[in-house]
Write a structure and sequence with these properties.
Two copies of one chain form a homodimer. By secondary structure, chain A is of the alpha/beta class. Chain A folds into two domains: about 5-25 and about 35-165, 3-Layer(aba) Sandwich (Carbamate kinase), CATH 3.40.1160; about 185-260, no CATH class. The first copy, chain A, has nine helices and 14 strands. The first copy, chain A, has helices at about 10-15, 15-30, 45-50, 65-90, 130-135, 160-170, 205-210, 220-230, 245-250; strands at about 5-10, 35-40, 55-60, 60, 95-100, 105-110, 120-125, 140-145, 145-150, 155, 175-180, 200, 235-240, 255-260. Chain A has an eight-stranded mixed beta sheet with strand order 5-8-2-1-11-13-14-12, sandwiched between helices. In chain A, a hairpin with a 2-residue loop joins strand 3 and strand 4 (about 60). In chain A, helix 3 crosses helix 4 (about 65-90) and helix 6 packs parallel to helix 8. The interface of A and B includes residues 70, 73 and 102 of A.
Chain lengths: ~260, ~260
């Protein structure tokens, strides 16, 4: 099967124009088909501050009231999405920036009856994999913002990690998918204080052993559990590391690669 | 040739959710292929006010400094574009919202050496008609915001009337194009104070005569000169009137239809 890279970039890259440029150059250099997913970093928070709209984050997730939904739609789907696409075009990488309502690409529903009311937060129901494939087959890269919709004229703020995972899973019907999570750390570390303790390869048995012997940072466990769910759902591998080292992540020379192999 | 409607909506519709809904229902009812173009109405001005960024408009055109460019990108390409697409999806009209950098759809350059410095204002160089056709042929409606790019990583604020006209002209290679300008008036009026004086049909000879005898509101002349240029460049007809009467505009029962016939 043809390979596809589904790459989620974190706030540290979005918030830093120079780092974003380094990342995008390496992104463009990937010869395979590719999808980029982004949220909004700290820009939405700064915009909310300027507009005097108080923001509340619980476990890193934003409580999205009506005014905050406006802000994240403006910042993620507008400002950041179009800036990334304009920069990719300048690097001669033909791209399209989309959000959930575009082409009905990501359908979600408002999270209800949760212990915490996250407001207009979306849980994903369906990824329009056929349309993603159609776009990719036309030779275009896809840049996805973390704004989805419910099909009934409601936009929803949705976790970008989850969007990346659902797209990766849905696309694995058609492609050999590598899912890359770019964040501020060099990978999954045995010792959270030591950047030289990155675990280069992680397969299910080894992960089980590390968890049992508590040799893994507990804060990484939900992320890793999700990564293992992804490779159990058809995704070929999940790679975690620094986006600015994207080339090394893909060649396996940096970061943590999670797979069955 | 197959027909295509290229429809530009004005600020009065964008600023009024109820009016926008009336318009979008009528838009969806059009059986032909269609492209919708929008700017940002007064939303960008209000957002700038809230952010304390002074706005300057000359002849209705916004001076776009760096901060204003951020605002219009957020408001036009983000908030308004995604809201329109979400509403169209809820009306079962599959749509995609794009801006100039997406698919390299509208390439422009920064206006230089003009008597007035409009800042990051774009003048259009090229419409990617092939890509517009490809999207339309896949059965999707296109919603275009008035943000373009220069191919060198610069977004540009661009007049939505001009975008509509350039798209209409470019698409007339493939389609029989009707270009609809929706604004707050019922059409071109002989007597600007009398909404019952709408000129229903306007062809070049009649227009020439009206201009010579000064029986046309001078403020409309630049708009009409452009409309006549459009029909001289392959566009089948230009229709001017109220967007909320879109069905009547298209059937010729309201508004002003400008054509060679």
């Amino acid at each position: 099967m043809e390979s596809l890279y589904v790459i989620k970039i974190g706030g540290n890259i979005i918030d830093d124009d120079a780092l974003l440029s380094v990342f995008l150059k390496k992104f463009v250099a990937i010869k395979s088909k590719k999808i980029l997913i982004h949220g909004g970093g700290k820009l939405a928070t700064r915009m909310a501050e300027k507009l005097g709209i108080p923001q509340q984050l619980i476990d890193g997730r934003r409580i999205t009231d009506v005014e905050t939904l406006k802000i994240v739609t403006m910042v993620y789907a507008g400002y950041i999405n179009k800036h990334i696409v304009a920069e990719l075009q300048s690097l001669k990488c033909n791209s399209i920036g989309i959000s959930g309502p575009d082409g009905n690409s990501i359908l979600a529903h408002k999270r209800e009856n949760a212990p915490i009311d996250y407001g207009f937060a979306g849980d994903i129901d369906r990824v329009n994999a056929d349309w993603f494939r159609q776009l990719l087959d036309s030779g275009i890269c896809i840049v996805v913002s973390s704004i989805t919709h419910d099909g009934n004229n409601q936009l929803l703020n949705t976790n970008a990690d989850t969007i990346a995972q659902e797209i990766a899973k849905a696309m694995s019907t058609f492609f050999e998918v590598s899912l890359v999570y770019s964040f501020e750390k060099p990978g999954v570390m045995q010792d959270v204080g030591n950047e030289n303790s990155v675990i280069n390869k992680l397969h299910p048995d080894y992960y089980k052993k590390l968890k049992e012997t508590k040799k893994i940072f507990s804060g990484m466990i939900p992320k890793l559990d999700n990564a293992f769910k992804a490779i159990d759902s058809g995704v070929n591998k999940v790679i975690i590391g620094k986006g600015e080292e994207l080339d090394l992540l893909i060649s396996g020379k940096a970061g943590t690669t999670i797979s069955h192999e």
